[in-house]
Design goal:
The chain has helices at 42-49, 72-78, 95-102, 111-121, 123-127, 138-150, 168-183, 195-201, 219-224, 226-233; strands at 2-13, 16-27, 31-36, 57-62, 65-66, 80-83, 156-160, 187-191, 204-209, 212-218. With 240 residues, the protein is α/β, with parallel strands linked by helices. Helix 3 (95-102) packs parallel to helix 6. The longest helix has 16 residues, at 168-183.
């Protein structure tokens, strides 16, 4: 079953066409990764799916319903949460206040129980819960951004460059957390420049170039694809 189905999306910045007929699908319970060089259109795709940009043409279906053109808050209530590139945490608010904002649209009584559960998954957030979010390290801010998104109880989590600018050890932690998120039942669409790490945890992958999908396939197949190895993993890369 496809949780998300994107058909022939065309998105513009003014008169400049950024997406030139993007079609992709995300199967429920899977991790799908979107790869490509800077400027390929990956973040534009994520912003279009999340409602931050409106496509000029094409259709976005979520849980078999047409959600094309809905506002980000409407999509959040339907179960689509975006962790944008750059994290976009609320830097002048505390860690706890950021987490509370992740659940701002919810009316149920289990919010604080789930905040405790999220802090169990991210112990550093428990330790720093009263600290201003802007004073956290880059890795801690990324964990906060992911934790905040999880508190919206998403069915589909969109992660845009979660490892960007982070130290290797923190990158390993972030990818472990993404795998855990999938294992607990949340579907993930992941934009990532670290192609090898992304394909190792993903089920399926797409490669973008200048606003188009040029390659797609199972993640294990893409790891062995000579075009991917040469372009994204290094000419002499050995995939293990």
């Amino acid at each position: 079953m496809y949780l998300l189905n994107v058909s022939d999306i065309q998105t513009f910045y003014g008169k400049i066409q950024a997406l030139k007929g993007i079609s992709l699908h995300v199967e429920e319970g899977k991790i799908v990764t979107l790869l490509g060089a800077n400027g390929a259109g990956k973040s534009t795709t994520m912003k279009t799916i999340a409602g931050l940009l409106k496509p000029k043409e094409g259709k976005i279906e979520f849980q078999s319903a047409d959600v094309t053109g809905l506002r980000p808050d409407q999509l959040l209530r339907k179960g689509i949460a975006l962790v944008p590139e750059g994290r976009a945490i609320l830097s002048t608010m505390t860690v706890l206040e950021n987490l509370e904002m992740g659940a701002y649209h919810r009316k149920d009584s289990s919010i604080y129980k789930e905040i405790e559960e999220v802090m169990d998954r991210f112990p550093i957030l428990l330790e720093r819960q009263n600290q201003l979010a802007g004073t956290l390290s880059g890795g801690q801010q990324q964990m906060l951004a992911i934790a905040r998104a999880l508190l919206s109880k998403p069915k589909l989590l969109l992660l845009d460059e979660p490892s960007m600018g982070l130290a290797p050890k923190i990158v390993a932690d972030i990818f472990r957390i993404i795998k855990e998120i999938k294992d607990t039942g949340t579907t993930v669409l992941l934009v990532e420049q670290n192609a090898k790490q992304a394909l190792r945890i993903a089920d399926y992958g797409y490669v973008m170039e200048t606003g188009k999908i040029i390659i797609e396939g199972g993640a294990s197949q893409l790891l062995q694809d000579s075009r991917i190895v040469e372009a994204y993993l290094g000419r002499k890369s050995t995939v293990s």
